[in-house]
Amino acid sequence: MADPIKARADELAPTIVGWRRDLHRQPELGFEETKTAAYVKERLDELELEVHTGIAETGMAAILRAKDPEGPGVLLRADMDGLPLTEVEGREYGSRIEGRMHACGHDGHMSMLLGAATILSERRDELKRDVLFCFQPGEEGYGGGEKMIQQGVLDLIEIGSAYALHLWSPCEAGTVHVRPGPMMAAQDSFAARVIGKGGHAATPHVTRDPIVAAAHAVTALQTIVARNVDPVAPAVVSVGLLHAGTVSNIIPDDAMLEGTLRSFDPDVREMLKRRAAEVIEYAAQANGCRSEFELKSGYPATVNDPAAVDKVRRLAAPVFGEDNVIEPQPMAPAEDFSYFLQERPGAFILVGAGNRERGITAPHHSPEFDIDESVLPRGSELFARLALDAEGV
User: Fold this and answer.
1) Using only C-alpha atoms, what is the Rg of the chain?
2) Kind and range of the H or E run holding 238
């Protein structure tokens, strides 16, 4: 006997793909998603949901109420923003906004959640708890999830758990990936200025060379993970920018370096931040210079609740096949659904969206990025099952 939820998701597949392509053509950056929000709201209004707009500027939430709820509701989240990239040419559904692109799958996330909202609105008599569909702005470094929480999105209904799906092109379409505990890393960044005394490169003894000091700092930063972090605790310290000088025969007055810190354990995270500042200052002092250090705290680690992960595995098996429900290793990218998981138990779930046979292998945040759209109805189906199943988290 055919599964009615799967059958409805399949029936909606062309519509879900159409939504994704419409959204892909009009990408907007964080907190600028006005057209995106209007497009999503128009579809939510058709489902006769209770829609709340203007949360964290361009974010919105739609409530589907159960007739007789038996417990706290569930939050299902999709992020909305694109990236400042120019997409490769030649795609019929390619971005029409120069320098803007949905290069991380957020267009697909919104479409999958709209599909789930459609399925659930048609089955509202079966709901045993309220559902909050959360469309979040500004995930790409803007902290939109935290701002939505600060502005009360979790207070619209009683929320007992939270789930998010993220399309993931490094993994093959037809697979789903979830693990208990840390799923993605905490991310912090730093910018430092090493200040010396410039002069002629032929007389370095009368200068205080900030380039040499910065070079020592870059090398010394690598010892933080090697010598300050427990070998079984993952951590990353990477310098992505080093800039100094203008010509070959002048020692400059200063040098700039910027980098990223990634970790999974809160104590390790605090140590990385402290040691990065110390190492740069000590390297500067050892070379007769001084330093200025600025830390920008980013997203915390994305930590999944074990009971929620068990639920995802149980419900994903009939959607993707039991052998295609995979436990990945923790990943170093960061994700601001972490703020929701600090407030409520739940899970951040990766849905494979790559397809080697079709050449869909480009990494996220790349001008060539794309997804296998066949996975979109499966994501809608999984979202719907997570809402309909009221057991446990």
Assistant:
1) 24
2) strand 235-244
Tell me the pLDDT tens digit for each residue of 43-82: 999 999 999 999 999 999 999 999 999 999 999 999 999 9
Spatial contact of 337 and 78, defined as CB atoms under 8 Å apart: no
Residue where the block lists tokens 């400042």: 84
Q: Count the residues in the chain.
A: 393
Helix axes 4-25, 106-121, angle to 10 degrees: 140
Helix (H) or strand (E) holding 212: helix 210-228
> For a pLDDT cut of 70, what percent of the chain falls above it?
100
Rounded-to-integer distance, Cα 363 and Cα 183, Å = 19
Q: How confident is the model at residue 248 (pLDDT cuts 50, 70, 90)?
A: very high
- Residue 206, amino acid: V
Instruction: Please report which confidence band the pLDDT of residue 1 belongs to, taking 50, 70 and 90 as the band edges.
Output: low
Q: What is the residue extent of each domain of the chain?
A: 4-182+301-388, 186-297
CB 350 within 8 A of CB 168: yes
Q: Answer whether residue 2 shows pLDDT above 90.
A: no
Strands 59-64 and 73-79: unpaired
pLDDT of residue 81: 98
- The dihedral built from the CA positions of residue 374, 380, 383 and 386, taken in this order, carries a sign that is negative
pTM (predicted TM-score):
0.95
User: Dmax over Cα atoms in the chain, in whole Å?
Assistant: 85
Phi, psi of 152 (to 5 degrees): 95, 20
- pLDDT per residue as tens digits for the range 136-163: 999 999 999 999 999 999 999 999 999 9
Name which CATH class applies to 4-182+301-388.
alpha beta
**Containing H/E element for 325?**
strand 325-326
CATH number at 186-297: 3.30.70.360
Question: Do residues 198 and 251 make contact, with C-beta atoms less than 8 angstroms apart?
Answer: yes
Dihedral of alpha carbons 47, 53, 56, 58, sign? positive
Which residue, among 390, 393, 381, has the nearest Cα to 68 in the 3D structure?
Answer: 390
Tokens found for residue 263: 């970790």
